[in-house]
Amino acid sequence: MKAIIRIVEQAKKKPACIVLCEAEDPRVLQAAYRVTQEGIASIILVGNKSNVLRIAAEQFISLESMVVIDPKTSPLRESFSQCLFNLRSEKGMTLETAKQEVLKPLCFSNLMVRKGMADGSVSGAVHTTGDVVKNAIQIIGTKPDCKLVSSFFLMMLCQPFHHLKGGMIFSDCGLVVDPNAKQLADIALSASDSARGLLMEEPKVAMLSFSTNGSAKHTAVDKVVAASQIVQAKSPNLAIDDDVQLDAAIVAEIADKKVPGSKVKGQSNVLIFPNLEAGNIGYKLAERVGGAVAIGPLLQGLAKPANDLSRGCNTDDIYHVIAVTVVQAQQSEIVKKRAPELTIT
């Protein structure tokens, strides 16, 4: 079974409540309708209510099973403003500024996640990645054991011509520009958790470099090796190769020659890139030349799921990211309720 199909099926087992702040975009409405009809998630749409209802009618999309909230008229405004002020006052935010910020659908949606009214959020069809990530970090915050929010792509290799089959995690390809050894270790540990939750298999991690098993000497290699050692100290049972070139990470015959003592043995399902430059090039090569399907960038390290979309995304992309967000919520055991008792008026 394809990895993305497994994710969709897993999402259906325990649907989560997902809030979408770009509800005036037809692509978002179409994806929201699809996941609702398929029982993947219950959906809260945040935006200008009259515009949302008008666009849905124009697109012949029924919102019958969804909740629509307009921040400007919501009774949650006051409590959300106070919550945001409490979170950001030490950074100089005033209560008056907080009252203005909560009128923005992106901010309002993430406050719903923070307050437990939704299990996760998806945005980025309209907003920039910078805005999505900044807002999520400031409002939702990071996991207690993680100081770094990073990103990953879920790469689908499911075509007959693919030598490798199934899903892989590529990280970080969209957020942390030049991680130090500690940050790179955090990325690898978060990506391993993402592999367990989404690929539903044990991670086999390759710390990518231009060196394999000490074959080159350079400070860039030293960083990767140091990161690997931090990971192994924190997760001693994790299968991980220290510094490894891509061919030895994914080809068993080459791994046998270059890394004879490897636990990964050329069967990596998690590729950790040394910096954003390599990661961004790597995932786009796999997508554009290798014919892989790239889902993401997805965020890891947050206290609750909040995922990003490409502004060039289509309805299928949004549908898949919603399903991923549901499974992430299941893994963090925060799915306790469906949409709150609100009605479309």
Please provide a written account of the structure:
There is one protein chain. This protein is an alpha/beta fold and 345 residues long. It has 2 domains: 3-141 and 306-331, 3-Layer(aba) Sandwich (Rossmann fold), CATH 3.40.50; 150-294, Rossmann fold (3-Layer(aba) Sandwich). The protein has helices at residues 3-13, 26-37, 49-58, 77-88, 95-101, 105-114, 129-139, 181-199, 219-234, 246-250, 252-258, 276-288, 315-331, and strands at residues 16-20, 41-46, 67-69, 120-123, 150-157, 166-171, 204-208, 239-244, 270-272, 293-300, 306-308. Helix 1 packs across helix 13.
If strands are numbered along the chain, what order do they take across the biggest sheet? 8-7-9-6-5-10
Assembly context of the chains: single chain
Please mark out the parts with pLDDT under 50 across 5 or more consecutive residues, or reply none. 335-345
Radius of gyration: 21 Å
What is the fold-level CATH name, i.e. the topology of the largest domain? Rossmann fold
Keywords: Acyltransferase, Transferase
Pfam families: PTA_PTB
InterPro entries: P_Ac_Bu_trans (IPR012147), P_AcTrfase (IPR004614), P_AcTrfase_dom1 (IPR042113), P_AcTrfase_dom2 (IPR042112), Phos_Acetyltrans/Butyryltrans (IPR050500), PTA_PTB (IPR002505)
EC number: 2.3.1.8
